[in-house]
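haha ok so turns out i had the wrong file open the whole time. this is the CORRECT one, sorry everyone. sequence first:
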Amino acid sequence: MGESVAVKIFSSRDEQSWYRETEIYNTVQLRHDNILGFIASDMTSKNSSTQLWLVTPLSRAGVPSMTSSIPGLPTLDVGNNPRVGTKRYMAPEVLDETIRMDVFESYKQTDIWALGLVSGKLARRTLSMMLTAIVKIMKECWYQSPSARLTALRVRKTLSKLDTDSDFSIEKLKQDI
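then structure:
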């Protein structure tokens, strides 16, 4: 018996996406334990319809893969264990095993949970770096010797640099609000 594989099937209208993925796998030759492997890509015809296949090894971890058992109807194969990944990023429904494994939308919702956690981590890190810089400015404003303190111009320039370096501008924040 051969090795089990996962086949991601693109419709002909998604040819650009299939071509881009195939090109990335063929050009870059990505090989790493944390990156999905690549076996082949192929164009097939079924019932006068073109299908574009991307063939990858079936994940050892049971990561969801799209397969097609009924023509035109994708099904989700997640193996027996939906709890794959880092526990602290898992949605409550995954941890308490109430996730609806037969509904693809459930998996998208758990991804959004993880996205929220990662976004929060990034925000804390960015704010932490900004706060560290601001605290440094504050301490330099509080020197005992008046001549050692920062000038107003130096404070303004340092804050402006912090604003442009962090890609966290007040103007962008105003636009979002």
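The chain has two domains: 5-81, 87-177.
again sry for the mixup
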